[in-house]
Design brief:
With 209 residues, this protein is an alpha/beta fold. The chain has 7 helices and 11 strands. It has helices spanning 11-21, 37-42, 57-60, 78-99, 121-135, 172-182, 202-207; strands at 2-6, 26-31, 46-49, 65-68, 103-107, 140-146, 148-150, 157-161, 169-171, 191-197, 200-201. The longest helix is centred in the middle third of the chain and has 22 residues, at 78-99. The two termini are 23 Å apart.
Length: 209
Amino acid sequence: MKILVIGANGNTGTRVVRMLVAGVHEPVAMIRDREQKAKFDALHVLSVIGDLEYPLDSAIEGCDAVMFAAGSGGHTGKDKTVLVDHIGAIRAIVTAQVHGARRFIMLSSLNADVNSQSPIAHYHKAKAHADHHLQETDLDYTIVCPGRLTDEPGTGRITATSQLFGRGHTSRENLAQVLVACLDLDNTIGKRFALLDGDTPLSEALRTL
């Protein structure tokens, strides 16, 4: 499959691109800044310019799948969270529908809830609104909800559960492995699940969802 990775230049997105290019799928890195192109040229990965605050047709057209690994980041205001994590995500979903990109992998968050009262409620609300919109479509979606992200080495061992609220950590390496693995696991289609570092081998945990 030809897969558009939205948020490709981010910490998790870059890991996803590297794993995809080492496998059987063809990644396309969506970047906002032309200066980021050299990074993906070095990986022999096609890149396209795109911004979640503007139409995405030229980026998504011709792709079979979309991997949404973008985020407004922890140093931006609440308005940017809404524009990127909520409205931008929905823009990507709608554009995928328009252009026939049937498979959609969404990177969400543990504790995403439209009624969140958490210290980062604006983020959890934005993610929840995007998740719910995706769930109402006819796309072959998978929604992955990690805990607090860390840069710890990936162990390849996780906990995957339908319990979407709680606390825990998820290494970005494990997260990227799961996002990529879900592309080829039909049993993850139509699923929204929490992902934490754990003790079960990744492939086993995902196949039992």
